[in-house]
Design a protein that fits this description.
single chain; alpha+beta; five-stranded antiparallel beta sheet; three-stranded antiparallel beta sheet
Amino acid sequence: MNWGTELWDQYDNLAAHTHKGIEFLDKYGNFVKDRCAIELEYAGKLRRLVKSYQPKRKEEDEYQYSACKAFRQLLQELNDFAGQREVVAENLQSNVVRELHLLAKELREERKQHLNEGAKQVAVLNSAIGALERARRAYERAARESERALETFQKADADLNLSRAELEKQKANVKSRSQACEEAKLEYTDQLRKTNEAQRQHYEQRLPHVFKQLQDLDEKRIKNIKNFMLSSVDVERKVFPIIMQCLDGMELAANSINEKEDTQLVIERYKSGFVPPEDFRFEAASGAEAAEAPPQNHLTAARGTVSGHRIKKRGGLLSIFSSNKNNMSMDGKEDYSDLPPNQKKKKLQAKVHELNKQVAQEQAAMEGLMKMKGVYETNPTLGDPMTVEGQLNECCDKLKKLRAQLRKFEELLAEANSQVCMPPLHPTSRTNGSAPPAQAISIGSNSESLSRSASESSVSTGTGTNACASVARVAGGSPESGLGGELAAAHEHANGHHEHDEHDAHDHESDMDYYYEPDLQPLGYCKALYAFEANGTGSTMRMECGERLLVLETDAGDGWTRVRRQHTREEGFVPTTYIATTLYADAHDH
C-alpha cells in the first residue's frame, strides 16, 4: 500500500487529508486537556468536601464512637482517592497533553515541508510541459511557413513570366523554411523527450516520494494517537492499586463499626456514678395532723424542707447537673469538681496520664542537657557549658511545676476513686431512729436534696457545723450545687448513730438518702447589703437590698449562709458577703 502508486493523481486530496488528520490530533489533545481539568476539578471538589466534613474541635468528643471513627477514616481514604485523581491529571498533562502538543507542531512543520516539496515537483513538471507546448507550437508554425514557402515556389516555378532570379529567390526561401522547420522539429522532439522523462520521474519517483513522506507522517500521527490512548489507560491503571487500597480502607472502616462498643462508650461517657432515685414518700399535708406535730417534726425533703405550707426546693445530687443536657461540665474547672463522679474520675485519669508523659519528656530533655553539659565540660572546644546552664534551670523549674501538678491530680484521683467506690445507698439504713420510718423521704433527680445539716437544728455545739464544712469541702460542693450540704448531713447522721466515732462515721458517710431535719431554730438575723437573684436551679434564695432575714446556718467556709424569710418561712442560701450578720447570745456561746 503506497500512496505514491495508488494515489498518484490525488495530490490535493492527500494534502486535505493530512490537514484534517492533524486537526483531529489537536482535537484529541484538547479532549485530554479538558479531561485533566475535569480530574483536577473533581479532585479539588473532593478535597473541599472532605475538608468541610472534617470534625470540628467542638465535635472531637463525638468522634470516639466507632461510626464516627469510621467516617473520619472514610474521609481520609477519600482524600487519598482525590490525590490519585490529581496524579492521573498530572500524568496525563505531562505524558499526553504536552507530547500531543509537540507532536502536532512537528507534524505541521513536516507536512508543510512535504507539501512544499510536492509543489516544487509539480512546478518542475509544469515547466517541462510548458516548454514542450512552446516547442510544439514553434514546430507547427515553422511547418506551416515551410509549406507556404513551398507552395509559393511551386507557383513561381509554374509561372513562365517570372525571371530566373525571382525563381531562385523563392527556391532559397523554401530551403530556409524547410531548414527552420527541421530545426523546430528537432527542438520539439528533444523537448518532448525531456518532458516525458520529467513526467515519468515526477509520477514514478519524485511525487511518490512526497506522497510516501505524507503517508509516513499520517501513519506516525495515527500511531501516536494509539500510543497516547494506551498511555492514558496506563496512567489510570497505575493508580488503580492505590485506589483499590482506598476502597479497601473505606470497606475496612465500614466493617469496623460496632454498635455494641458504641453503646458501651455512651455508658462510659455519660454514666454519673449516682444511684437511681428512691420512691417518693407520703408527705403529711398541713392541717389537723400537722398542727398536732411539734415544729421539730417537720421533714427535710430531698431538695427542700416542708415548713408550714411551703416546700423549699434545693439542688440535690442529681439536679446539680440538670442544667446541662449531657450531664457534663461546661465550666471547665481545673479539678473537674463540677463533673459527676465517674466523669470526674475519667478526666483525672486522663490528666494524670498526660502529666506523666510531660514529666517523662522533661526528664528526657534534662538528661540530654546534662549529657551535653558533660561533653562540653570534658571538651570545651565543642561548646561552653554555661550556655546549657540556663536551659537546665528552666527545665528544672518546669519539671518541678509539672510534678507539683501531678501530685495534685494524683491526690484528686485517689479521692475520686474513693468516692466512686463507695457502696450504693440503701433506704433501710438511712432512717433516723428518733422518728417513724413512715416519715422518711427519698432522694431523686427531680425531688428535694438533702439538708446541709441535720444536727444543727438544736444549735447545741459548733462541732456539727465544722463537720459539715469539712465534708462539704472534701466533696467539692457548695450550697449552689447541693453537694456540700448533702454530704455534711450524711456525716452528721452517722455521728448521731455512732457517738462521734471517726471510724464508724466514715463507714456511714454514704447513708444520706433518708433522714429527718427538725425546723431549724434561728441563730441570729442578718440584713441584706445588696440585692441577690437566685439562679432558679439550686438552693439559693432571692433577697432585696435592706431586707431582714433570720440566720439558720452560718457560713461553713464555702461562702454561703442559710437564711429564712420570717413571714413566708421561705428558706435558702445567700452569699455571706452580701449580708451583715448578728448572732444571738446563745449562738455565740455555742
